[in-house]
Design brief:
The complex is a heterotrimer of chains A (about 425), B (about 325) and C (about 90). Chain A contains 12 helices and 20 strands. Chain A has helices at about 20-35, 45-60, 70-85, 95-110, 135-140, 155-165, 195-205, 240-270, 295-305, 325-330, 355-365, 385-400, and strands at about 5, 10, 15-20, 35-40, 65, 90-95, 115-120, 145-150, 175-180, 190-195, 210-215, 215-220, 230, 275-280, 285-290, 310-315, 320, 335-340, 370-375, 410. Chain A folds into 2 domains: about 1-205, 3-Layer(aba) Sandwich (Rossmann fold), CATH 3.40.50; about 275-410, Rossmann fold, CATH 3.40.50. In chain A, helix 1 packs parallel to helix 2, helix 1 packs parallel to helix 6 (about 155-165) and helix 3 (about 70-85) runs parallel beside helix 4 (about 95-110). The two termini of chain B are about 25 Å apart. Chain B has 13 helices and 9 strands. By secondary structure, chain C is α+β, with helices and mostly antiparallel strands. Chain C has a domain at about 25-90: Alpha-Beta Plaits, CATH 3.30.70. Helices cover about 10% and strands about 20% of the residues of chain C. Chain C has 2 helices and 5 strands. The radius of gyration of chain C is 17 Å and the shape is elongated. Classes of the chains: A alpha/beta (about 425), B alpha/beta (about 325), C alpha+beta (about 90). Chains A and B meet through helix 3, helix 4 and strand 13 of A and strand 1, helix 3, strand 2, strand 3 and helix 4 of B. Bound molecules: iron/sulfur cluster (2 copies). One iron/sulfur cluster binds near residues 33, 51, 66 and 71 of chain C.
C-alpha cells in the first residue's frame, strides 16, 4: 500500500503525513520504536516529549516502562541501568537537565551503551533562560556521544528512528544525542511524513550486542545472570587510556556506519541525510556552515541571494560528532570564503566551538577557504534572514580584502 | 518466606570472590558476602562508588560472580531502577534477554556517603516509584574510601579527617541522620537493620528484603577498622557491642495495611525484655580510636552522657513503635 | 605482580573485566594465618561467615578449612571462634 513496487520505496503517502512539532515528532517516532525503557524528567522546551510519551503509556499504546525519575541525573542513570541490562532506553532533556546529566554522559559512552537521547537545545543558565541556543549540547561535545543535529521536524522524526541503528551498530555501540532547537523546532508545528509502525519496527529490529570475553568466559555486552560480566570497573593508569582509545575507534567507525544506516533508511523512506548537507555549494564563492534550524533560514537567504546573482551556498552539519572532517574539506576546499555560525560561546577561546572544528579540519590543507566566525542567537535571540544576509555581505567584504580581520563577529547583539 | 539454613548458606559458593582488595577485617565485605548468599538468584548487583566498588573491581580483575555494574556515586538507586524497569518491560513484552526470569534479585549497594548524602535524592525517587529492588546501605559512618571524611551517617562526637577533635570542637558536632525513619516514611514494604555479628539474622532479613514485592532497604552497620580505629580482629566484637548497647538496635519494619509495623529482632528483643542486660554506650565508644578524645586526656562525661541520652531516647522510641 | 598487558585492540570493549580476583592472591598481605584444632572444633561455621575474604571454606564433612591463598590474617575468625579452637600462627 505504501510501497512503490520496484524500489520498495515508501512514498510520501498523504495518509502518513502528520502535523507535528519537533517534540511530538520525537515522541511519535519513539512510540513507533517502542523502546523497553523511557526514563525522563520534564524540562522546558523538552516537556512535550515526556508528556506525549506518558499519554502513549497511559493509553496502553506502548509496552515501554516509563520511569518518571526525580532528576535528569537519575534519568540517564536509569537509562544506563536499563541498557546495561540489555534493554533499549531513551531519554530527553535540555539545557540545565543535560548539565545535570553531564557526569553520566561520559559514563554512558564509556560503558558503550547505545542510549538515544533527544535534546531540545536551550541556553544554559545563568542567567536562567528557556530559549534556544547550543550551549547545552556543545558543553557535552566531548562526552563520547554521537551528535545529530536537525533542521526541521521531519529530520527530527527520521533521526529518532535512525539513531537506534547507528548507536547499536556492532562496529559502534555508542550513545546518540539528537539535537533539535528549543521552541524553534520543539514547539513549531510542521508537516511530517511518518512511516508505518511495522516499517519502523522492522527497520530498528532488535538491539544487537557485541561479544566480550569477560572473567567468566564469553558473553554479550549486557548484564545477564546466565553469563555474568562486570561493567564499570575501577580502571587505573594501566588500562584507562586503552579504553579511551577504543572509544576513539568506535567514533571513527561511526563515520562509516552513519551513512550506511542512512542509505538503508533512505531506500525505505526516500529521505537520506548523510553526515553533511551541502546546498548550492558547487559553484559557490560564499558559504555558510552551521547547525540546526538556522540552516533553514539560511537556505532561504541563499536562494534570495542567488536570485540577485550572489554565488551563495551553505553546508548544514548534520553529524557533529563524529566530526565529518573529510566530507567537509572535500566540499569546501575550493570555496573562497566560509562563514561558520556558532550558537554557543566557548569563553576565552579564539572561536566558537563549531568554527574551531572547521578551522582544525582545514589546517593541514593547502587549499583552504578564508574562515570567518559568527556567533548568533544566544538565549533565543532571533536570527533573521536579514542578519544572515548581513553575514553574507561580511563574507563578500572578506573576499574582496582577502583576509579575515576579526576572529569572531557577534551578530544581533546590542553594542 | 523460604527458609535458608545456616548450613545451606555456608555451602553456597561465594558470589563475591576471594582476592578482592578490601582491608583486612572489613565489616562491609562480611555482610556483603552474607547478603549475596541469601540471594535466591538470578541476581544483578550494582554498587555506588565506594570502598566495596573500588576494591572488588580493580581492572582487569573483578570479584563479582553475578552480573554487576558500577556507574557513579550518587545513583545506585537510579541505576537499579533502570535495571528493574528493563526487566519489567521485557517481561511485559515477553521479549528480550531478561524476559525469561520470573524473579530477579536486584541489589544496590551503597555506602553512607552514597546514601545519607549524595545519593539521598536518587534513593528517595526510587523508593517513591516503588521499584522492586533491595537497597543495601553499607554504613561505615564516614567517607572511608577517600580517607575518612564525615558524612551524614557519622555519629556525634566521632573524629574524622573533616570533623577532627580539636581544642574548640570535640569531633562531629551533629547527630547521625535518622536515615531509617526517612526511608520508612516512604512506606516501602520492607526495611531492616542488620549487622555482621548476627549471620542468621542477616540471612533471614536479606531473603525477606529480596522477596518483598517492591523496594526493600537494609541498613547494615559495617565497622571499619581503619576509620573507627580498632584492631581488625575486633570487627565482630564492635558490631556486637553496637547492638548490645542499643546504639544500633536490630529490627525490621514492614508496611502493611497503611501503616508501618516495627518488630525488634531477637538480639535486641532480648535486651528489651531484660533491660539490665543493656550495656552502657561507653563500652562501645571506648574500644574505638575515633572516640579517644572522649576519654583522654580527660573523661568527657558531659559528651558521653549526651550520647547515652540520645541512645536511650531512640531506643525507647523504637521499643514503643515495636510495641514492646 | 608483573603481567602482560594487552593493547587496546585486544581488550574487551566496554571496559569489561577479564580476570577474576581468584587469580589475585591476597594471602601475602598478612604476617599470620589461623590454624584450626579440629579436635575441638564444633563445626559451628561462624568462622566461615565472619571471614571477610571468604577464605574459610566449609568442607563436605562440615569442618572448615583456611584457604591461605586469600587469608589476610585479620584474626576475626580466631577472635570469634566460640570454642577457641583456632589460633594465629606466624607465617614461615
Ligand atoms: S584471619 Fe581473617 S582473613 Fe584469615 S581466615 Fe581468619 S577471618 Fe579470614
Ligand atoms: S568458629 Fe571455631 S568452632 Fe566454629 S567452625 Fe570455625 S573453627 Fe570450628
Amino acid at each position: 500500500m505504501y510501497e512503490d513496487g520496484e524500489k520498495g520505496l515508501i512514498v510520501t503517502d498523504e495518509r502518513l503525513m502528520m502535523g507535528l512539532n519537533g517534540d511530538e515528532a520525537v515522541a511519535y517516532a519513539i512510540k513507533q520504536v517502542e523502546p523497553d525503557v523511557v526514563a525522563a524528567y520534564p524540562i522546558t522546551p523538552q516537556t512535550i516529549i515526556v508528556e506525549r510519551f506518558s499519554e502513549y503509556v497511559a493509553n496502553g499504546l506502548v509496552k515501554t516502562d516509563f520511569v518518571s525519575v526525580e532528576s535528569e541525573h537519575s534519568a540517564l542513570s536509569s537509562c544506563i541501568g536499563a541498557e546495561a541490562a540489555g534493554a533499549r532506553a531513551f531519554t530527553a532533556t535540555a539545557a540545565n537537565g543535560l548539565a545535570l546529566m553531564w557526569e553520566m554522559t561520559f559514563i554512558a559512552s564509556s560503558l558503550r551503551l547505545p542510549i538515544v537521547m533527544a535534546v531540545a537545545n536551550r541556553a544554559l543558565s545563568g542567567p536562567i533562560n528557556i530559549h534556544n541556543d547550543h550551549s547545552d549540547a556543545m558543553g557535552a561535545r566531548d562526552s563520547g556521544w554521537i551528535q545529530i543535529w536537525c533542521e526541521n521536524s521531519q529530520e527530527v522524526y527520521d533521526a529518532c528512528i535512525e539513531a537506534w541503528r547507528i548507536g547499536e551498530h556492532t562496529n559502534v555501540q555508542l550513545p546518540v544525542m539528537i539535537n533539535l532547537d528549543g521552541f524553534t523546532l520543539s514547539h513549531t508545528m510542521e508537516n511530517v511524513f511518518t512511516l508505518p509502525d511495522d516499517v519502523v519496527k522492522n527497520f530498528v529490529r532488535d538491539r544487537r550486542f557485541i561479544k566480550v570475553k569477560g572473567h567468566l568466559g564469553e558473553s554479550e555486552l549486557r548484564l545477564d545472570p546466565g553469563t555474568p560480566i562486570t561493567m564499570g570497573p575501577f580502571d587505573l593508569q594501566d588500562f584507562y587510556f586503552e579504553h579511551k582509545l577504543q572509544q576513539v575507534e568506535a567514533m571513527r567507525r561511526a563515520l562509516e556506519a552513519i551513512p550506511e544506516v542512512d542509505a538503508e533508511y533512505e531506500a525505505l523512506s526516500g529521505r537520506g541525510y548523510r553526515l553533511i548537507h551541502p546546498y548550492m555549494v558547487d559553484d559557490a564563492e560564499l558559504v555558510i556552515v552551521g547547525l540546526g534550524s538556522t540552516m533553514g533560514t539560511a537556505s532561504y537567504v541563499v536562494e534570495k541571494l542567488r536570485e540577485k546573482g550572489v554565488k551563495a551556498g551553505l553546508v548544514k552539519i548534520r553529524v557533529f560528532r563524529p566530526f565529518p572532517k573529510d566530507e567537509l574539506v572535500k566540499t569546501l576546499r575550493s570555496i573562497p570564503v566560509v562563514g561558520v555560525l556558532d550558537r554557543a560561546i566557548s569563553f576565552g577561546a579564539p572561536n566558537g566551538p563549531l568554527c574551531e572544528e572547521v578551522k582544525t579540519a582545514f589546517y593541514e590543507e593547502k587549499d583552504r577557504p578564508l574562515i570567518a566566525n559568527f556567533i548568533h542567537g544566544l538565549g533565543g535571540r532571533d536570527t533573521s534572514p536579514s542578519m544572515i544576509e548581513g553575514m553574507f555581505h561580511r563574507l563578500m567584504k572578506i573576499k574582496s580584502r582577502g583576509r579575515v580581520d576579526q576572529l569572531i563577529e557577534y551578530v544581533g547583539v546590542r553594542e | 518466606m523460604s527458609d535458608l539454613t545456616l548450613k545451606e548458606a555456608a555451602l553456597k559458593p561465594d558470589l563475591l570472590a576471594s582476592g578482592h582488595r578490601l582491608c583486612a577485617g572489613c565489616g562491609e565485605t562480611i555482610i556483603a558476602r552474607m547478603i549475596l548468599k541469601a540471594a535466591r538468584g538470578p541476581t544483578i548487583a550494582t554498587s555506588a562508588t565506594g570502598c566495596l566498588e573500588v576494591s572488588t573491581s580493580i581492572y582487569p580483575y573483578t570479584a563479582w560472580m553475578v552480573p554487576w555494574i558500577h556507574s557513579a556515586f550518587e545513583n545506585a538507586a537510579a541505576t537499579a531502577s533502570g535495571i528493574e524497569a528493563a526487566w519489567r518491560a521485557m517481561r511485559r513484552k515477553q521479549k528480550g534477554p531478561l524476559s525469561r526470569y520470573e524473579t530477579l534479585d536486584i541489589i544496590a549497594f551503597a555506602g553512607d556517603g552514597g546514601t545519607y548524602d549524595i545519593g539521598l535524592q536518587a534513593l528517595s525517587g526510587a523508593l517513591e516509584r516503588g521499584h522492586d529492588f533491595t537497597y543495601v546501605l553499607l554504613d561505615n559512618e564516614a567517607y572511608m574510601n577517600t580517607g575518612i571524611q564525615r558524612s551524614g551517617g557519622t555519629p556525634f562526637a566521632a573524629e574524622t579527617t573533616t570533623s577532627p577533635s580539636g581544642k574548640a570542637v570535640p569531633g562531629k558536632k551533629e547527630w547521625k541522620k535518622p536515615i531509617d525513619e526517612i526511608v520508612i516514611a516512604h512506606e516501602i514494604p520492607y526495611a531492616a537493620s542488620i549487622n555482621p555479628a548476627y549471620p542468621m539474622d542477616v540471612l533471614r532479613k536479606s531473603r525477606k528484603a529480596l522477596e518483598a514485592d517492591g523496594p526493600a532497604f537494609l541498613h547494615a552497620l559495617v565497622p571499619c577498622s581503619r576509620g573507627w580505629r580498632f584492631p581488625p580482629e575486633k570487627t565482630i566484637e564492635v558490631s556486637r557491642l553496637a547492638v548490645q548497647t542499643c546504639i544500633f538496635p536490630l529490627y525490621e519494619c514492614r508496611f502493611l495495611e497503611g501503616r508501618p509495623h516495627y518488630e525488634l529482632s531477637s538480639p535486641s528483643l532480648a535486651i528489651a525484655k531484660k533491660p539490665e542486660s543493656k550495656k552502657p554506650v561507653e563500652e562501645y565508644l571506648r574500644i574505638q580510636g575515633r572516640f579517644n578524645h572522649l576519654f583522654r586526656p580527660e573523661m568527657r562525661v558531659d559528651l558521653i552522657s549526651s550520647i547515652q541520652e540520645w541512645v536511650d531516647n531512640r531506643w525507647e522510641m523504637l521499643k514503643e513503635k515495636s510495641g514492646v | 605482580m608483573t603481567e602482560d598487558k594487552p593493547g587496546w585492540r585486544e581488550m574487551p570493549e566496554g571496559a569489561i573485566s577479564y580476570k577474576c580476583t581468584l587469580d589475585y592472591e591476597t594471602g601475602d598481605w598478612g604476617v599470620e594465618y589461623p590454624e584450626i584444632d579440629y579436635e575441638r572444633c564444633s563445626k559451628c561455621m561462624l568462622c566461615h561467615f565472619y571471614c571477610p575474604e571468604g577464605a574459610v571454606r566449609v568442607r563436605s564433612d562440615g569442618y572448615t578449612e583456611i584457604d591461605r591463598r586469600y587469608c589476610k590474617g585479620c584474626g576475626i575468625c580466631v577472635e570469634e571462634c566460640p570454642v577457641k579452637c583456632m589460633k594465629m600462627v606466624r607465617k614461615v
